[in-house]
Amino acid sequence: MPIAHLANADIYYEIHGQGHPLLMLAPGGLLSHVELWRVTRDGKPRDYPDPIAALSTRYRCIAIDQRNAGRSHAPIQASDGWQTYAEDHLRLLDSLGVDRFHVLGSCIGASFALKLCALAPDRVTGAILQQPIGLSAANAANRAESFDSWADGLRQRPEGVDEAALEGLRANLFDGDFVYSVSRQTVAATQTPLLILAGNDILHPTEIAHEIARLAPNATLVEDWKGEDRSDIYTGSIRRFLAGLDQYA
């Protein structure tokens, strides 16, 4: 089982295929792990094709379990936040000898991807934001719903969990607005090419996808991509976007 032993985290990862590196950050909130590309948290098949299988024919797909999700482990500190996760991603890529890379992030993975664009703009060659999360009037009351599910799982561990550290992490992750990980000004300043696959539910508001597309100077927006009858739209949109970046990779 491939585990990268980083500065303060043990991160599980898988590599599929060859080609330009494509970091894949799965949906599922802080429960984000590799299998959630294929099934929902309650085990139902996703309503879009497995992107690892679809894209590993051309790219070196690097899929991971986030810290304290799946097979990855790390201490929890009250100072942790979006940068902590981004540092995991960059340190993992460093350990694999990867400098420049594309990134595909779904759900919370889209916010992780935007943080990487902000922290390492010279390394991120393109970013796909699949049904990005974000704060809206409709979901303000349950903005940290996935955090609570994840935290309840940690509380079941024999060693327990530091509640003050959990509260600090929660505040650092979800006390903001917009997409949580970066500001509107940061998105407006990014030069990274973005493909945005709009969400259509309360946790993945369509208006957030539209706002990212309006703000980012180099963005493409795709809607109505979910469902078995639209699988070609999903994979085709991603493949065309990435193919257009190959000359810059």
Which characteristics define this entry?
249 residues, alpha/beta, Rossmann fold, 8-stranded mixed β-sheet, 8 helices, 8 strands, 16% strand
Explain what this protein looks like in three dimensions.
It contains eight helices and eight strands; from the N terminus they run βββαβαβαβαααβαβα. An eight-stranded mixed sheet has the order 1-2-4-3-5-6-7-8, with helices on both faces. Helix 2 crosses helix 3. It has a single domain, classed as 3-Layer(aba) Sandwich (Rossmann fold), CATH 3.40.50.1820. The chain is 34% helix and 16% strand. It is of the alpha/beta class and 249 residues long.
Structural class: alpha/beta
For the secondary structure, the number of strands is 8
Principal-axes geometry comes out as globular
Strand order of the largest sheet: 1-2-4-3-5-6-7-8
Count the DSSP helices: 8
CATH class: Alpha Beta
The SSE order reads: EEEHEHEHEHHHEHEH
Mean pLDDT score: 95
Question: How many structurally independent domains?
Answer: 1
Low-confidence stretches: none
Beta-strand share of residues: 15-25%
Distance between the termini: 29 Å
Summarize the main sheet. Answer: 8 strands, mixed
Q: Provide the CATH superfamily.
A: Alpha/Beta hydrolase fold, catalytic domain
Helix content: 25-40%
- Rg, Cα atoms, Å: 17 Å
CATH architecture designation: 3-Layer(aba) Sandwich
CATH fold-level label: Rossmann fold
